[in-house]
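::Amino acid chain::
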Amino acid sequence: MSEAPSKAVTSHWPEYLMEAALLGLFMISACGFVVLLEFPGSPVRRALPDAGVRRFLTGLAMGGTAIALIYSPWGKQSGAHFNPATTLTFWWLGKVPRRDAAWYVAAQFAGAALGVLVARVLLGGRLADPATNFAVTMPGPAGVAAAFGAEVAISFILMSVILRVSNHPGLARHTGIFAGILVALYITFEAPLSGMSMNPARSFGSAVVAADWTALWLYFTAPTLGMLAAAALYVRQRGRGGVACAKLHHQNDKRCIFCASRLEPFALRLHSSPRHRERAASTPQHLTREIEG
């Protein structure tokens, strides 16, 4: 996976921009649905006085957004992390080169902030209203400790599911659906504890535009700790060889900047499309050139 630093930047910049765009689109969607369902002047908000029902609808919307982005052409190519905690976990697992990880994280933070800024322009003062507050994540009434524990727990579960599903031959192509379902459930049931972030860049994007830094450290540390703990447990149980690649969706014809330079037998068997497997059987070097291209 080693690659000259300058070559990595010049050849992998499309993936960096895709990661920024994916999280930017996620934030625009989050802000839009928060305004639709929580802004006091919204007719939908007035028609749905029950906060639990509104959280359920927000969960469906954001879970659906996550699934759509993961299975989008950009998500299939970049790996659809759009989360620094996810990228850092795959870096720790040895599946993302250090320089790619650094650029992914930078792109994710930039994309999140730009996404909220775009939403601010589109939605105006409705997004700045105290009831919506730029979709800022902050601890609920139970306090910071409960929010920290909840963020660690939901992040641990998410990464555990991602690793087990994405490395299961029969389930790997459905990883994005599993992730989206968890996002929907978390927003519905966990959001009252922490606001449901799991994503340092997502929380940063809202905080920087709102100039509201309430417990931001929590959303930087807890999701990362939870995902790293899940990865450590997975490695303890199955070893690092049990992780094929850093992509959430690999069963496609998009290039992979993570495993193209070293197609291990396990990664090739698990993640290649049927057409790739057929061609790899006779000309594995051709497969490598195709994926790199």
User: Anything to note?
Assistant: The first helix runs from residue 5 to 38. DSSP finds 15 helices and no strands in the chain. Confidence is low (pLDDT under 50) at residues 261-267, 273-293. The CA atoms of residues 39 and 132 lie 6 Å apart.
